[in-house]
Amino acid sequence: MSNISLGEIGFYPDPNTPEYLLPYHLRRGDNSREELCRLVALRLAMVQLSEKQREALHMRYNLGMSLRKLSAELGISRSAAEKRIKRSHQTLKTMVELCMLVQKELEKKGDD
Questions:
Q1: Dihedral sign, CA of 72, 77, 82, 87?
Q2: CA 60, CA 87: separation in Å to the nearest integer?
Q3: pLDDT by residue (tens digit) across 16-71?
Q4: Cα 30 vs. chain centroid, distance in angstroms?
Q5: Cβ neighbours of residue 25 closer than 8 Å, sequence gap 6 or more
Q6: Exposure of 41 by Cβ count < 10 A (0-12 exposed, 13-18 middle, 19+ buried)?
Q7: Is the separation of the CB atoms in 83 and 58 below 8 Å?
Q8: Which of 2, 76, 81 is nearest to 36 (CA)?
Q9: Coil, strand, or helix at residue 79?
Q10: Helices marked H in 1-112 — which ranges?
Q11: CA dist., res. 52 & res. 85, Å (int)
């Protein structure tokens, strides 16, 4: 599974969009159905996280905060901040993998 920046999950172009019209993060051959499915799955998974988890991920990855600064900003220990980020990642990974499996099964049924 490719690494996707959390800041890049808001754009879902049609798979037939000409490459020159795509944002740079989708121009490296990432305009496949699988990659778009992964982006949609990530977006849906983000909605399932708690507000605290989304806030921690936003501060860490979109704002680039260190764990020390993030923990101070949230008023929690560094250990708690690390656990929150780790659990959020695990939740996202599990949900995206599940969505990808469902998508592959749907494609198989469509090929029949």
A1: negative
A2: 14
A3: 666 666 655 556 555 567 777 777 888 888 888 999 999 999 899 889 999 999 99
A4: 14
A5: 5, 8
A6: buried
A7: no
A8: 2
A9: helix
A10: 33-48, 51-57, 67-74, 78-111
A11: 10
- Total count of residues recorded for the chain: 112
Burial class for 78, CB neighbours closer than 10 Å (0-12, 13-18, 19+): middle
Our measurement of the distance from residue 61's CA atom to the centroid of its chain's CA atoms, rounded to an integer in Å, reads 11
**Which band of pLDDT confidence, cut at 50, 70 and 90, is reported for residue 8?**
very low
Q: Is the pLDDT of residue 14 over 50?
A: yes
Residue 101: Cβ-neighbour burial (10 angstroms; 0-12, 13-18, 19+): exposed
Please identify which residue in the block is written with the tokens 């656990």.
83
* Pair 58, 6: CB distance under 8 Å: yes
Please say whether the dihedral angle defined by the alpha carbons of residues 33, 58, 70 and 82, taken in this order, is positive or negative: negative
Amino acid at the residue 50: S
Q: Which pTM was predicted? A: 0.63
